[in-house]
Amino acid sequence: MADFWIILTGTLVAATCGVLGCFLVLRKMAMVGDAISHSVLPGIAIAFLVSSSRDSLLMLIGAAVLGLITIFLIQALQQSGLQSDASIGIVFTALFAVGVILISRNASHIDLDLDCVLFGEIAYVQWDTWIWNGYDMGPVAVWMLGGTLLLVLAAILLFYKQFKLCAFDPALAAAVGIPVALFHYLLMGLVSLSTVASFESVGAILVVGMLIIPASAAYLLTDRLSVMLGYSVLIGVLSAAGGYYAAKWLDASIAGSMVTVAGILFLLAFICSPKHGLIARFGKRNRLNSAAV
């Protein structure tokens, strides 16, 4: 049963991050997820100090506040003329460093270490269960991530056309009356919520990996957004399941193995993509050279 809960947790993270990752990749904002996953650390540390407990709701609130602050700081720096990558790098490194200082200075009061921050506790999700009226309802992480996935899917389905147009052509979206800024912050809010909901269970590495790698692999496999979303979720789910069994076989980190499998699947897409892969481009180059001769 432990295997089932771990794989289900990884699958929920992969599906949620896979959907949002597609829009981040298309908008050239893939590293925003990385920034949020690192910069929420001060919020988690402050929640521990204030409450002296590992209550998931307090952690969620503290991390969510820092996630929103991260988004606004990045946007403010970009509007001041700083490049996007520089803005992201400055904000997440500064806030992550603050979190490290808080943990190191208050180590005796904070039941948290940096290994937990990076790799999470996905191997132990089955032990933190939700008890309702005396019934064991299953791991808290599964309910939290399942609820987050439903919220993300509802938002994407409800505003699919708006998100699509804002991702491909923000200028046209603004011209036809779509509030581009509103949908930008809505997308960033969903990314922040998903990152925070996933953070405690799976750690920063798996969150970032699932936000970027499956969506990037899917981007190479199709030119249609709807198909890209499906491919991204599928690659993420395969990475979660394959990574877990690889971790058992190698006796290695589960989160690290899941991201490694995702990386292998991306490499296969990079080489074998029928339109954008290395093999396809090499064949096209040869045909052009033959035609020129």
TrEMBL record:
Gene Ontology CC annotations of this record: ATP-binding cassette (ABC) transporter complex
Gene3D superfamilies: ABC transporter involved in vitamin B12 uptake, BtuC
Highest taxon in the source lineage: Bacteria
Keyword Plastid: no
Pfam family for this entry, one: ABC-3
Residue stretches spanning the membrane: 6-26, 31-50, 56-74, 86-104, 140-160, 172-196, 202-221, 228-247, 253-272
An example Gene Ontology biological process: transmembrane transport
Keywords linked to the UniProt accession: Cell membrane, Membrane, Transmembrane, Transmembrane helix, Transport
Coiled-coil region list: none
Record-linked InterPro entries: ABC_BtuC-like, ABC_TroCD
Protein's cellular compartments: Cell membrane
Topology in membrane: Multi-pass membrane protein
PANTHER family: ABC-TRANSPORTER METAL-BINDING PROTEIN, METAL TRANSPORT SYSTEM MEMBRANE PROTEIN CT_070-RELATED
Record-stated family: Belongs to the ABC-3 integral membrane protein family.
Protein name, per record: Metal ABC transporter permease
Organism: Paenibacillus mellifer
